[in-house]
Amino acid sequence: MTVHPSARNLIRQAWPKPGPRPARTRNAGESRTRKIVDLRSGGLCERCGGSGHSVHHLLNRSQGGRWEPTNCARLCGSGLTGCHGWITTHPDEAWAEGWHLKPWERPGDRPIHSRVHGVVLLADDGTVTPIEGVAP
Ligand SMILES: [Zn+2]
Question: Is position 63 within any domain?
């Protein structure tokens, strides 16, 4: 299809080329949470104590889970391997250990069973509170 030159100018004015895209930035919650989780975990997988490579959301982001230290844990593997993969493929067992939350549960309310911390509740300031009387 050919467009008359004067029509082309009208089209350019009506739909100007977009300017440069704004730089992608991580939101402040993600950066802050990653720092706190790094410090809390010491770089270890908070489930098994191995080397941690990824950050897992206890309440999935697709279900409203946020970048908050109570909702995030450092794990080994990825969505398909290591502890991260185990949680993805074993949601019921992961729920029993506190690594997976149901949509109606609030992060920080269920203890995690961790080789690094023991059985603890996570707090948003990066601290953990041991749950007495529960074997890890
Ligand atoms: Zn692990």
Answer: yes
